[in-house]
Design brief:
Strand content: 35-45%
CATH architecture of the largest domain: 3-Layer(aba) Sandwich
CATH class of the largest domain: Alpha Beta
Bound molecules: adenosine-5'-triphosphate, magnesium ion
Order of helices and strands: EEEHEEEHHHEHEHEEHHEEEEEEEEEE
Oligomer: single chain
Structural class: alpha+beta
Largest sheet: 6 strands, mixed
CATH topology of the largest domain: Rossmann fold
Distance between the termini: 44 Å
Length: about 350
């Protein structure tokens, strides 16, 4: 296990494009940290910078307190595990796993020991002599993982390792990676653009947008308390409204929106006049006739039954925008409903500019 510190890391490509913009991050030893963000936001570039494949333009990086900013990849105590597996097709499973340790001069006895351990860890002992083409996608992914682990790195960098697997297998390998990480204790930096994967696997999620860190926190904090429209929209579904601040009531605030007056609870001091606020579809309470505030009336315009839940689209009275709620049982399209959103279920996002 190793600790990783990134200090104001920036990278500009030769064509002038700034792909990483002032990234500062402290990854605890043994932490499972996920970099989450849309395509092109700089996730792979950041991983490659950490691994030493991409020089950075500004800032510094430390691993276990040692400055590695200018070190070659082999000296960094990191290993990468890629999306495309990147296995050597003409080499057996065992040879693939032994390749790295051999390159870095590990002696023969130790190599044999590492191979045996890695094969056992990923449950491929009986497949050591096969070529990658004779394995399933999930098995190939496990070889890629074994190959990274055989390097005994303090940090494993995963770049969308599960994106080539079907949904069911992805679920299974997800648990396997997490279990191995807990057992072996390596620090994991895991890249994905799949929000469900990030929420399920991570100790901490770092949401990236255009080369910058937009928000970082435990999965539940990020989901329950997004701090910007970008995060609210990227993770889960969110109803986002503009709100004008009316008054402070102790730790509550009264605001005016196009759905009416709402009271919300926040730790922030609201010093600006207008903010974006949001609430999650599943936080809507249906049938709120007697609620004194935080309520609005709407017409059900469409719905999609999902089995365990139903997604419902509402047209609120007097508002131009639709909103989404999620309920247990289907509703009647065309019917009127009363909706309440509890003060603690509303998050305050950035100020309206
Ligand atoms: N060598 C390069 N020169 C110029 N621009 C580059 C270079 N390599 C990558 N980019 C650009 O940098 C941005 C970030 O790329 P990166 O591969 O880090 O994104 P990503 O977040 O991993 O995306 P994805 O989810 O699609 O893998 C993209 O806009 C990409 O086009
Ligand atoms: Mg990428």
């Amino acid at each position: 296990m190793a600790r990783l510190e990134l200090d104001h890391v920036s990278k500009t490509f030769a064509n002038g494009f700034k792909v990483l913009d002032d990234v500062t991050l402290d990854v605890r030893s043994g932490e499972f940290l996920t970099l989450l963000g849309p395509s092109g936001c700089g996730k792979t570039t950041l991983l490659k910078a950490i691994a030493g494949f991409h020089p950075i333009s500004a800032g510094s990086m430390r691993i276990d307190g040692k400055d590695v900013t200018r070190l070659v990849p082999e000296k960094r105590n990191t290993a990468m595990c890629f999306q495309s597996y990147a296995l050597f097709p003409h080499m057996s499973v065992a040879e693939n796993i032994l390749f790295g340790p051999r390159q870095s001069g590990v002696d023969k006895t130790e190599r044999a020991e590492r191979l045996a351990t890695a094969l056992r860890q990923v449950d491929l002992v009986d497949h050591a002599d096969k070529l990658p083409a004779a394995l399933s996608g999930g098995q190939q992914q496990r070889v890629a993982l074994a190959r990274a682990m055989a390097m005994r790195p303090g940090i494993i960098l995963f770049d969308e390792p599960l994106s080539n697997l079907d949904a069911k297998l992805r679920d299974q390998v997800r648990f396997e990676i997490r279990a191995l990480q807990a057992e072996l204790g390596f620090t994991a930096i895991y890249v994905t653009h799949d929000q469900a994967e990030a929420l399920a696997m991570s100790d901490r999620i770092v949401v990236m947008n255009r080369g910058r860190i937009e928000q970082s926190g435990a999965p539940q904090d990020i989901y329950d308390r997004p701090s910007t429209r970008f995060v609210a929209d990227f993770i889960g579904a969110a109803n986002i409204l503009e709100a004008e601040v009316l008054e402070e009531l102790g730790d509550l605030w009264r605001v005016h929106t196009n759905l009416g007056v709402f009271v919300l609870r926040t730790d922030h001091k609201l010093t600006e006049k207008r903010y974006y606020i949001c609430w999650r579809p599943e936080d809507a309470e249906v049938g709120a006739q007697c609620a004194p505030s935080n309520r609005f009336e709407a017409v059900v315009t469409a719905q999609a039954f999902q089995g365990n839940l139903t997604d419902v689209i509402l047209a609120p009275d007097g508002a131009a925008k639709i909103c989404r709620i999620q309920v247990r049982r289907p509703m009647t399209v065309g019917s009127r409903v009363e909706i309440r959103i509890a003060p603690e279920k509303i998050s305050v996002l950035e100020a309206v500019r």
